[in-house]
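User:
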Amino acid sequence: MKPAPRQLADGLLAGDRAALARAITLAESALPRHQELAEEVLELCLPHSGGAVRLGISGVPGAGKSTFVDALGVHLVRERAETVAVLAVDPTSPVHGGSILGDKTRMPRLASDPRAFIRPSPSGGSLGGVARATRQAILLCEAAGYRNILVETVGVGQSEVAVADMTDCFLLLLLPGAGDELQGMKRGIMELVDLVIINKADGGNEGRAARARSEYEGALHLFPPPPHGFPPVVSVCSAQENRGVREAWELVLRHRAHMQASGWLSRRRAAQARRWLVELIEGHLRETFLRSAAVRARLPGLEGLVEAGALSPLRAARQLLEAWEPAGED
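Assistant: Predicted structure:
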């Protein structure tokens, strides 16, 4: 028998990890009934959310994101005696639809600590690999008492745009030896970052890491100052050797203190909530549109004409929209 929303919410608020996991599973489900239950649970938990530090973490392939998250989480639970939830979004295979879901094996020290909650979630092909229900998961983890939320993305791509829009601070993890990596870095990514951490400053790479830090600091100075007045900071660390991890977290706390004192934290979260509302509306409209019998009847033929170059996508889209009759409209 499935638990009622109130029962599930009460368990979650009491710190029941199984209840939290179940609530997130409901949020991730594509079944309408599960989504309705997840919505009810979220409404009950919403007054108890909002108090955590929300940190988004992305990075280039091979930068050691999981090792860094493991080291940072261990610092939080063992040295600071705080709780931490890691929402690690795995890539979904475009061929088989499966996902790796191996985050607990990649974060062995943190996974064994009862003050940590690690939730790997398949992306389901959503924008840049960011799970559709990650926003809900953040609020549920906060309601369950986790004071620090780390959202790890699958890598640099479109995902950093989404994760930056659901967290308070966005951290980009890079490798020593900027060089070609700096040249290939998208301008949009660098405009989003609050903190840049050069990882793997070990094994003789300390000098390269220092040079990379200087290069990125120079590059970031070319961008206009952020409106909140906290310019991006570049630091170095070795997550493998646990050096510089504490300093990285101190930078996160400095950023948060500035955002709170200036009023930007509340404004940022309010803007994120508004954009989430718009995303939900757009997603619902798209699903409703594609479920329309009139649209389903005409879509294959129009797709064929567009693929053959016999009809422009603009004209095809207009014809489909004209054929669509939303329920409840005259």
